[in-house]
Amino acid sequence: MKDTLKHSGMRNKLAQVIAKKGIQDKNVLKAIRKVPRHLFLDSSFEEHAYQDKAFPIGASQTISQPYTVAFQTELLEVKPNDSILEIGTGSGYQTAILLELKAKVFTIERQQELFKKTKLFFEKMGYRPKKIIFGDGYKGLPSDAPFDGIIVTAGAPFVPKPLLSQLKVGGRLVIPVGTDEQIMTRYTRKSEKEFEKEELGLFKFVPLLEDKN
Ligand code: SAH
Questions:
Q1: How far, in Å, from the CA of 5 to the mean position of ligand 1?
Q2: Which residues have a catalytic role annotated?
Q3: What's the pLDDT at 212?
Q4: pTM over 0.85
Q5: Number of folded domains in the chain?
Q6: Are 2 and 39 in contact (CB under 8 A)?
């Protein structure tokens, strides 16, 4: 599959749709116009890639809806050179959006099949996250903490403590919390011990799975 003018035209429309739904951050919208989402999907979904919808990506996982990706990214308030931890690499689309914003991205995926596939895909596309890790996101990534931002792209039944403790003071954790449905929640670290908590609407994600071993 290639990226053509037709695709970039569809991306411009998608960015308009997302802006109408309330996304204001110019850089986030620019990243949506830039990243070729159709290449992150199975070719059978090519025609639909620029609809504002989630799609299956194998291993019972989904690529999040573009509006949701934009909403979470806006809440992260990414600045160039920020170090950002992403939990749930999946297709790599959210990772690519963060890279467009010039963040240093560390991303963790617990499904080996997806991890391998997406790692190869990044190499092929020239996307360069700092680290792509096969592991359990509940633990965060202590070796590279603290982070300016942490984004969880699966529904978390509770807020994992390590993620809060791996934020810099001033850093933000954006996490959908809940089982059947999730409340998009943002924690901002105000000091070593204090966190501000904001709840920002209902979403539906695949579950953040806990390792049984
Ligand atoms: N950011 C992805 C969204 C993928 S869906 C994208 O843009 O495509 C959520 C992903 O979280 C799935 O790939 C799933 O395998 C992964 N996941 C679930 N539980 C996890 C855990 N404990 N640690 C890391 N990844 C996890």
A1: 31
A2: 64
A3: 57
A4: yes
A5: 1
A6: no
